[in-house]
Structure formats: C-alpha cells, structure tokens
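dumping this here before i forget
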Amino acid sequence: MFERVLFVALILLIAYLFKVAGLFREDHSKVLIDYVIYFSLPALVIQKVREVPLGGEALGVVLLAWISTGLSLFFSFLLGELFGFKGGSLRALVLVSSFGNTAFLGYPFTFALFGDEGLRYAVLYDQLGSFFLVASIGFLIATGRFDPKEVLLFPPFLALVVGLLSRGVPFPDALNTFLDISGKSLIPIVLFAIGLRFAPSHLPRSARGTLIALSIKMLLVPLLVAFILKGLDLRDLPYRVALLETSMPPMVMAGVLAIKFGLDEALALSAITLGILLSFLTVPIIMDVLI
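structure:
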C-alpha cells in the first residue's frame, strides 16, 4: 500500500521544494485549483457518474459519507465543548473534524489503491456526500446561513447533474476521449497545488485543537466505520473506497471557510497541513482493519 501511494507524496514534496527554490510561489496554486474546479474535476465527474452502477452499493457509499460526517459532527461538538472551545475556535474545530479532503487527496489515494473503477465510487462519495454536506451544513456552521445557489452553480455539482441525466446516452468517441484525458489530468495537478500550499509554520500553532480534530477525523470515526463494515461483512470495492474516503484528512475547503469567515485560521491550517502528512501513515492502518 505504501508503494502504491508513494507517487502522492513525491508530487507533494517536489511541488514544495520547487516553491522553496523560488521556481513557484504559493499563490500559483490558485490557477491550478481553478483549473481543477472548472475543468478537470467536472470532466472526471461526468465520466465516472455515467459509468458507476447506481444500485444498492452506490447508495451505501453515499450513506456512509453521510453517516461518517454525522459522527464527526457529533464528536467534534461534544469534545469541543468539553475542552472549552468557544466561538470561532469551536466552529473551526467542527469544520476540520467533520469534512474530509475526499476530492483533492481522496481521488489520488483511490486511484493509487483501486484504479479507475474505484474512482467511480470516490466521485459519488465526494459529490453526493462530502461536497453536498460542506456546501450546506459546512456553510451553515461557518456563516450561520445557507445559500442554495452556491451549491447549484458549483461546476462539479453541475457536472454531476449532467452525468446523471446523460446516463444511457451514448457519447461520441471523441468526447469520451476528451473526458478521459481531461479527468486524468486532475490528480497530478491538484497534488502539485497542495504541495505549493504546504507550510510547516502552521504546524506548531493550535496544537490541542489540531490533535482533537485529527483524532476524530482520521482515527476515531474511520475506525468506527471500519468495524461496522467488518461486522456486516461489507468488504467489496464500493465499501473499501468509502472507508478510504472516510479516512481522508481535513478538507481544504473547510480551511477556506474558516479563513473567509474569520474563524480560528491557525487551527484550520494546522489541521489541514498535518493531516496531509499523517494520512500516509493512518490510511494504511485504517484500511488494514477492514482487510
């Protein structure tokens, strides 16, 4: 497993070293992220949603996304109150504890371990689970309001609608090739963008909150889900992909929300940065529980 995900670490490391050497700047990542959000991710979503079987297993993948997020919300609110977090610090803790990096990091991990077939289920988990929940509950936690327009006009969500409506409609070979090549460009580009944003200076700040958030997001909830799946003998590919996505570190968008709405920025960035580093250790451990 470590060998299969090694390319993820290598791309992240190379991007960070290029930034340190002055060949790239952190703000260059914005262009790459925009490329992913507006082009390669929608292409991947359309292609994979058209391919994935929409049966009981697909429903189970989405249900697990909702269950794992619900568990994370419960434990983060509970422990946050217990340890005295208030206001913006509590809301930042809940955000980074509850919403995982199921697209930008989850897709590369899924591709590394389960190939193109696994990506189909990762897209479902991310789009109908993580993205929908962070765009609704996440916005509500960060701002106290919910704007449906922000969800409906988000390019990957529009791509999800196109993919669902076009199922069973044959596409020309040229269009299928276009979607395939465009979607595959997502993985190296998004990893490079994350590598450019990596900053070790975030790590020493907000140590207690970071430890609580990562313990919930990357250990407690994934282990609960793993034991549930193992107890029910649900070990087929869709459920392994769902467990992998459940094990992802905090979502970059959670940090964006924390920064944009004046929450505890240091806590959010520390959890995101350290979470990415720890994922190379915790993800194989979680997956071994199910196997």
